[in-house]
Amino acid sequence: MAIRRANKADSKEIHFILNNTMELRDYGGREEYPSRWVNAIIKDKKNNLILVNNNKNEMRGFLIAHLLNSIKDAILNHLFVKEKYRNKGVAKELMKEYESYLIKNKFYFNLLFANKNNVSAKQFFESRGFKRGEDFSMYYKEMNN
Questions:
Q1: Residue 116 lies in domain
Q2: What is the number of domains present in the chain?
Q3: Which long-range contacts does 41-46 make (Cβ < 8 Å, 24+ apart)?
Q4: Among 58, 80, 117, 140, which lies 20 to 30 A Cα-Cα from 89?
Q5: pTM (2 decimals)?
Q6: Which residues share a beta bridge with 65?
Q7: Is the pLDDT of residue 139 over 80?
Q8: Residue 138: inside a domain
Q9: Are 48 and 67 in contact (CB under 8 A)?
């Protein structure tokens, strides 16, 4: 397995997965992640870390994190592994590379959100040393659409 940073060639597949995988969706079923958003976060390497797990030119999974460099905190936004590669170490490898990046670059805090119904994700993160915070409701408001 090879872990690398995402590039422009990955944007179409990441865009498709984000908008067609129910466990990654939060806002009522419409296209939540426009292609402009995916392209922008891949391009902005200073403020975003998008890692791809590839094997023989096939994407097995990816991780999207937003880097708050000014305060050295990170927000893990998405961790996705294709169904046929789950429970084969893909997510662990992505997390290992991600956490190594944070340690190397002296980040202090790593925050993530998991859907309350995604039991396997919650178990995975807790097994990696994440502590569960309080439950809350997420609100959103669309701007400039």
A1: 2-127
A2: 1
A3: 41/66, 42/6, 42/7, 42/8, 42/10, 42/11, 42/14, 43/8, 45/5
A4: 117
A5: 0.88
A6: 49, 76
A7: no
A8: no
A9: yes
